Amino acid sequence: MNRKRVRRLMHLMGLKAFYPKPNLSERFHTQCACPYLLHGLTIDRPNQV
Question: Are 6 and 13 in contact (CB under 8 A)?
Fold first, then answer.
């Protein structure tokens, strides 16, 4: 039994691996935070932004 067959059978049965996954949403959160530049802008025509 190879890795591809195990993966296919686990997918058919709806099984997933159970291990701690990396928390990517909190990882470089302070460095990637960007300000929302369209905050005070009124958009009143197409292709304005």
Answer: no
